[in-house]
Structures are given as C-alpha cells and as structure tokens.
Amino acid sequence: MNQMEVSFSASLDNENFARTTVGAFLTPLNPTIDEIIEFKTIVAEGVSNAIIHGYNHNPECMVVMKVQIEDRQVKLIIQDYGKGIENLDQVKTPFYTTAKDLEHAGMGMTIIETLADSLEIESVVNIGTKLIITKRLKDNG
C-alpha cells in the first residue's frame, strides 16, 4: 500500500494545493484524464466543505487529508476538527446547506457521492467531520 498525509490551513487558497497534491500522488498509476478530473473535483468539494462549514473560514484551523492506494483502489480521507454536522441524513440531500448565501451551495456531498464508489461521513458536533471516500481506478492494461 502507498499512502500520504498532508495538513494545511483552512483557507480556500489551499483548495488548489489539495487538488494538485492528490493528482500528483495518483500520477504513477497512470489514471485517465477523466479520473484525475473526478478526483480533483471530489477533493475540491470535500476540502471546501471542511473550510467553509467545519471551520467557518478560520485559517488558524487545519484540514487533514490522507490518501491510501492499494491495487488501484484509492481511499481518500478529508478530516476537520470543526463544528461537526448535526443531521447526517440531511447533509446528503441535494441543495441542503447551512450556508444559504453561497452560490451553488448544497451540492458538495451529492457531487462526491456521484463521482465516488462510496462516501462515508463520520461526524460529531463540536468534534469534527471525517469524509471517507473510495474510488477504484480503471485497469489501464
């Protein structure tokens, strides 16, 4: 198994860093362009949710991202130690959001769920949220 872990300040400026890091880490597996785009989109949605909803844009807080690869199965974990999610059932409902003033709000988890093979959400109010996302890369042989 190959794995990595990075942590970064909860600033939207770091969303691109997170996307690029995952893309670079997957490169040795020779993924398709579509697979890279899908992973970058998943990372963007998960990281921005941690920053916006978990930490309310507080750059003093840290987002932790882990990637594990085993036999083309990719497990991505995005974790914050922020305010947590009160109602886990609602969070997967399209257009549900706690930030109603944001354009396109409420689609992040739906997008992740659509692009990934699986999405698990673990959350405890005032402790934080962990997204566990899995997606298998196509065999390129």
Number of structurally distinct domains? 1
CATH homologous superfamily assignment: Histidine kinase-like ATPase, C-terminal domain
Mean pLDDT: 90
**CATH topology, what is it called?**
Heat Shock Protein 90
Number of helices: 4
Shape: globular
Tell me the total number of β-strands: 5
Structural Rg: 14 Å
> Could you name the CATH class?
Alpha Beta
Protein name: Stage II sporulation protein AB
GO molecular function, one term: ATP binding
InterPro entries: Anti-sigma-factor_SerPK, Anti-sigma_F, HATPase_C_sf, HATPase_dom
GO biological process, one term: negative regulation of sporulation resulting in formation of a cellular spore
Can you summarize this structure?
This protein has helices spanning 15-26, 33-54, 88-91, 108-115, and strands at 2-9, 62-70, 73-80, 118-124, 128-136. It is 33% helix and 29% strand. InterPro entries: Anti-sigma-factor_SerPK, Anti-sigma_F, HATPase_C_sf, HATPase_dom.
Textual characterization of the structure:
The protein is of the alpha+beta class. It is 33% helix and 29% strand. It has helices at 15-26, 33-54, 88-91, 108-115, and strands at 2-9, 62-70, 73-80, 118-124, 128-136. A five-stranded antiparallel beta sheet has the order 1-2-3-5-4, covered by helices on one side. A hairpin with a 2-residue loop joins strand 2 and strand 3. The chain is globular.
Using brief descriptors, characterize the structure shown.
globular, 4 helices, 33% helix, 141 residues, sporulation, Heat Shock Protein 90, ATP-binding
